[in-house]
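Section: Multi-chain targets

For targets with more than one molecule, the full set of components is provided together so that the structure can be written out for the assembly as a whole rather than chain by chain. Components appear in the order listed by the source. The example entry contains three components.
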Amino acid sequence: MIVTLSKDVMKVVKDQDVVPFRNRVKEYAVKIKMGLVNQTKLITAASELVRNMLKYASGGEILIEIITKGRDNGIRLTFKDKGPGIPDIDLAMKDGFSTGKSLGLGLPGTKRLVSEFDIKTIVGEGTTVRIIKWANG
Amino acid sequence: MERIPILRMGHYLLVTIQVELYDRLALSLETDLVQMVNKTSAKGVLIDISAVAIVDSFMGRIIGNIASMSKILDAQTVVVGMQPAVAITLVELGLSLPNVFTALDVQKGMDLLASMIDVEQEDFDDYEDNNS
Amino acid sequence: MPFDISMILQKKKMQILEIWIKKQLESADLREDLFSNEDLRASCEELLEVLLSSLNEDNLTNPASADFDEVNEILAGISISQARQGFNPRETALFVFGLKESLIEILQEEIKDPQDLFTNCFKLNRLLDTFSITTFETFIKGREEVILRQTDEIAEISTPVIRVWDGILALPIIGTLDSARTQVVMENLLEEIVASGSSIAILDISGVPAVDSLVAQHLIKTVSATRLMGAECIISGIRPEIAQTVVHLGIDLSNIVTKATLASALKFAFQSMKLEVKRVQKDNRNIVS
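Its structure, encoded as tokens over all components, is:
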């Protein structure tokens, strides 16, 4: 049973918005006493997902939540955009695939950095990515 | 627009990144640094990232690019002072920067550059000796 | 007139104790290796004494009554110590159930009216069932404490980072390397590299029982992270069986410096730091002259 303790919504539409967004995620992570390595992993994952949002959907909205399940606390980030969507999601989740000019480790790499990773996409309507990082996972 | 300062120290260029990186800033650093290497014919580039808390795949790629571009311009790049958390995250992300030299701190990075460039200088001397 | 069963039981205390102890001694499950007869008698006597002195007509039907706090405490103490000593749950349960049977046997002898007997037995039954629940709860809690303590101990002892020389760290890994463990190993190693300014780290895997592709992947990750920090990582302690499995599984370790023993890894580290270890020739001439 996951309970949301507090939440916050941020809009990211241009490159410079990324730094304040990362700082906000860090603030939340520090608040639940997440260790430095896990903080870094979470913020790096968030950074990857925000870049995808800016590049393919020219921005979107991010929901930042502090959640709790039993004895564990964690951060849940929900990235929502109204971009073109991803036609072949299985292919996009494969290591080494990229449509843009990056190294092609965006989505699978991001998945390895977080505790839970969930992606929903509808072609022509947009993509929603939801990640969870537990404070001690 | 914000820019990251590039310091010249003899044959070397020293870049200390003290601000949070974002994509455009990293891109302009790439351009500035490559131009600077060309202008000063520097033999080595030292990038100190000890104050950088986050390196994601894009910034990792920029660092790799700088190293490869400098190599073409005959300069070696050493990245120094990476934080443990950043190193663990990059490896988990699948980005191990195989073509980039690394060192623990600026001093060790300088030593590494000196050893690499000395070798090249010697090669050059040998070459001259053979021709004379 | 209703029977005051607490009075009856109080009177028959010695008899109850005898029946109870006999029951446990008869039981084939009694662990004489863990629990001597004297200890058994002492525990039984203590519990019975406290139970009978706190039992009265009013609290008989109220197991939650504060009168029983002491009983619960003693029960908890017994079951926690049994859990720690490695008793199984059946043995611990039999302890309380044996008491219940003994009490009921005595009541059966003392109360002749069936209706009264049933009512009182029922009350007593219910009371002792609550005590059994306490026993179970504390027994499990005792076991959990043992597990938690061991987990902490393992985490603590599993990743010592040793400074073997100025600038050289060694990290002996004992036990299986899973991803949680790798995380701890990596963090400790990298932190120590920064703290000590070491440029060479030796990862000794003599204590790792088996290397499969997952473990190899964890090792490669650790080496890559060390390299990103600007230090060299050597893997030592590779047994012949491990070399065989690594090749059979098609794992590529060619980019990693590997050595058979910690000693040869140290030698390699000395070489790359341009250090030399020499035997000192003893000069005997002075003694002769």
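Chain C has two domains: 5-152, 162-272.
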